[in-house]
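User: Hey, quick favor. My workstation is busy. Could you predict this chain's structure for me?
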Amino acid sequence: MSDITKCPGTNCPVKDDCYRFNAESGYRQSWFAKAPGEINEGKFTCDMYWGEQSEGIWNQLVEITKTDLP
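Assistant: No problem, here it is.
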């Protein structure tokens, strides 16, 4: 199970590239009640999109914030 909130991908043009849609689901999986993406003025946006680039950025932030405890 993925320890994330998954997306149902309803009407999402980028769901096939999004980890929140493609990750393996578990028995007690958390889901968005409604797909978080929206279309405004003909442009699709989603603040919860988790693509390959997003995962790389996340991994970099994790590395940057690691600290050695005394």
